[in-house]
Amino acid sequence: MSSPVEFLELLAREAAAVEFEGPLVAARAAGLPPDRLAELEQAKSVALRVRALLERRRRRETELSGLYDTVSDLAGLRDLDDVLRAIVHRARNLLGADVAYMTLNDDERGDTYMRVTDGSVSARFQRLRLPMGAGLGGLVAQSGAPYVTANYGEDARFHHTGEIDAGVGEEGLVAILGVPLRLGSTSIGVLYAANRSARPFVREEVALLVSLAAHAAVAIDTARLLTETRSALAELSAANTTIRAHSSSVERAAAAHDRMTALVLRGGGVEDVAAAVTEVLGGALLALDAEGRLLARVGEIDEPDRADIVEAVAASRTEGRSVRRSPLWYAAVVAGAENLGALVLRPDDELVDADQRILERAALVTALLLLFRRTVAEAEGRVRGELLDDLIARPLRDTDALRSRARRLGVDLDAPHVLVAVGDDAIAATGSARQRVLSWATTYASARGGLAAARDGRVVLMLPGLDAGGSARAVARDLSRVTGRPVTAGASGPSNGPAALAGTFHEADRCLTALGALGRAGQGASTAELGFVGLLLGTVGDRGETDVTQFLSATVGPVVDYDARRGTALVKTLEAYFGVGGSLARAAEQLHVHVNTVTQRLERVGQLLGADWQRPERALEVQLALRLHRLRAPAG
After folding, report:
1. CA 320 to CA 65: how far, in whole Å?
2. What angle do CA 474, 478, 480 make, to 5 degrees?
3. Among 492, 494, 495, 518, which Cα is nearest to 506's?
C-alpha cells in the first residue's frame, strides 16, 4: 500500500525523478480515495523539491571542489602560459563546454585578442581580434559585465562584424558565455565557455565561471608579477655580474697602477712595464720608440707595418686614448707634444674600459721612463763629454784626477783607445739635428765603454780597441743610417795612456780633413790607411780638395785620361815601375808581361808627360800624384 514513506526511500537511494511517479501510479491502481491521492501528490512534490535541492548542493559541492582544485593548481604554476592554459582547460571541464577560450586586452591597440583556447579546431578563430564593443567578447571587455547567449548568430544584442562572425561560424559555436577577468576595477580580459549547439547557460554556471575568472585574474597577475620579478632578478643578476666585473677591472687597474708605480720607484725599465702589462691583461706586447724601433717585446707578436703604426699612433694622440686596429691595440707614448713611441698590445680577450686605462697608464709610465732615461743619458753624456774634452785639451792637467773620473764612468784610460772624428757633413744646420748626432754618439760610445763629446764643431768618439780604420768605417756607416745622409769619419790610434789622447785626436782630425781633400766624403778611414799623404793633406785647409784635383791634373792627368780613353794600363805600369825601384825586368814580372811591353808603355808615358818625367824632382811629384790618385778611389 502506497504511503509518503516510499518517497523518503526514493530520496535515500537517490532515485531518478521519473521513479517518484511510481507510488502515485500504484495508489490509483489500488483505487485509493481522492484525499489519499492528494496527500500522496503533495508528498511527491515535497520529495522532488528536496531531491532538486540535494542535486543543486551536490553540484555546488562539485563546483566548489573544482574551484578549490583550480586554485590549488594555479598556485603551483609559475609560467604565465601554463597558468592561462590551465585556467581555460579547467573552465571547459567544470562547465562541460565544447570549447573554452580567453582573450586579453591590448591597451596599446585598444582591442582584445585571442590568447589561448581549449577544444578549438579553427585557426581563423584562434587568431581573432575583437574591437572593444564588438561581438559578445568585445562587449564584455568594454563593459566589464558577464554576457550569455543561447544562440550567438541570431542574438541581435551584439554588434556583429564579418571577421568575428566568420571565425565563430568556422569554429561552429552557437551558445557562448563570457565573463570578465577583473583586477579590482580594471578588466584585463574575458574568459569564455561555448557550445556548438544551443544551450541556455543557467545562473549557477554564470556564477561558477565568474568565480573561476576571479581566481584566474589573480593567478594571471601573480604569474605576471612573478615573470616581472624574475626578469628584474635576471637584470639585477646581470647588473651584479657587470658590477663584479667592473669591480674586478678596477681592482686590476689599481693593482697594475701600484705595480707600475713601484717599477718607476725602484728604477725599472720599459721591459719591466711591458711584462707587467701582459701579466695583468694577458696577450703579447711591443714597446716601440718614436722611429718605430723595438724597445721591448713580451710574448709572440709580429711588428706591424710602419704605415699602420704611424696611422694608429696619430689616432691615439688625437683621441687622447688607446685605439683598436683589430686585433691590436695602440697607445701613443707622448710627453706634451713630443712623440716618444707606442705600446702595441695583442690581448687574449676583449678589453673593457678599465683594461684600456691600464694600457694607457702603461704608456704614460713608459713616457716617464723614456724621459728619465733621456735625462740620465744627457747628464751622463755631459759628464762623459766634459771628461773627453779635458782629455784632448792641451796642456793636459792632473792625469791622476782624470783617471779617477774615468774609473767612475767605467772607462780605463790606460787601455788602448782609438779616436774617431765625425765631419761637419753629419751635422745639419738645426740645433736639434746636432743634438741628435751628439746623443747618438754618446749612446754609441757608452755602450762600448768609451766617451763622446762635441768639439770645434765636430763630434769626437773615444772607443776602446786597436782597429782605428774599422771603428771609423763603423761609425760612418751607423751614423749615416741615423742621419739619412753620408757621414765622413777620420780615425787615429790606438793611443796608450791619457797623455797620448790629445795627439791622437789631432791626427784623427787631420785624417778627416785629408778624406775631404781626397774627395772621399761619406767614408771612414784612419791615418795609418792614408799614410804620409794623409798627413800632408791634413794640413792643406779649406781648399785642399781643389788643390789636390789641380795637382793631379797637372802631374798625371794626361796618363789617367789616356787610360780612360784607350783602356790601357799606363797608370798601373807606372805604379809597378816605381814600386820596384825603376827595374824594368821586375816590373814586367809583377805585371806578368814582357819587358818590351813595359818599355813601350813607359815610352808612351814619356810622350804624354814629357821627356823629363824621370828626373828626380819630377819623379817624386809623379809618385805622389799616383798615390793621391789611388787614395781618391780606394778599393772596396
Report:
1. 74
2. 115
3. 492
Which homologous superfamily does the CATH classification assign to the domain defined by 549-632?
PucR C-terminal helix-turn-helix domain (1.10.10.2840)
Task: State pLDDT tens for residues 369-414.
Answer: 777 766 655 555 566 667 777 777 766 677 788 788 878 878 888 8
Pick the CATH number of 269-375 from 3.40.190.150, 3.40.50.880, 1.10.10.10, 3.30.450.40: 3.30.450.40
| DSSP-based three-state secondary structure for 492 | strand
Taking the whole predicted model, whether its pTM rises above 0.85 is answered as no
Cell of residue 491, nine digits: 780615425
Task: Tell me which amino acid residue 203 is.
Answer: R
Assign 548 a pLDDT band (cuts: 50, 70, 90): low
**Which whole number is the average pLDDT over 118-142?**
90
CB atoms within 10 A of CB 215: 17
Fold of 80-229: Beta-Lactamase (3.30.450)
Residue with cell 739635428: 433
Among candidates 441, 468, 305, 457, which has minimal Cα distance to 385?
441
Region 424-447 average pLDDT: 72
- Mean confidence (pLDDT) of the chain: 80
- What residues pair up with 190 in beta bridges, in sequence order? 103, 180
β-pairing verdict for 284-289 and 294-298: antiparallel
pLDDT score of 37 more than 50: yes
Residue 543: phi and psi, rounded to 5, are -95, 15
Per-residue pLDDT at 385: 63
Torsion region of 457: left, alpha or beta (phi above 0 gives left; psi -120 to 50 gives alpha): left
- CA 184 to CA 187: how far, in whole Å? 8
The pLDDT of residue 635 is 43
CATH for the 393-541 domain, from 3.30.920, 3.30.70, 1.25.40, 1.10.10: 3.30.70
Those residues whose C-beta lies under 8 Å from the C-beta of residue 329, and which sit 6 or more positions away, are 322, 323, 344, 345, 346, 347, 351, 356, 359
